[in-house]
Amino acid sequence: MATKKFALNKDPHAAEIGDDVTLLFKPEVMGDEFLDSYTQLQETTKRLNVDLSDTT
Q1: How much is the mean pLDDT over the chain?
Q2: Are 55 and 23 in contact (CB under 8 A)?
């Protein structure tokens, strides 16, 4: 029987927002939901002309 090995990322993904906020996302968990939500966030910020790098 053939054996396959898979590597899964176990470290959280970090998203830094400004200088004060870091969001940690669990890797390999609901990836499709994250991507859908991230795409929606990008579309919304473009439509509203919001700069996420300016957290003042």
Answers
A1: 80
A2: no
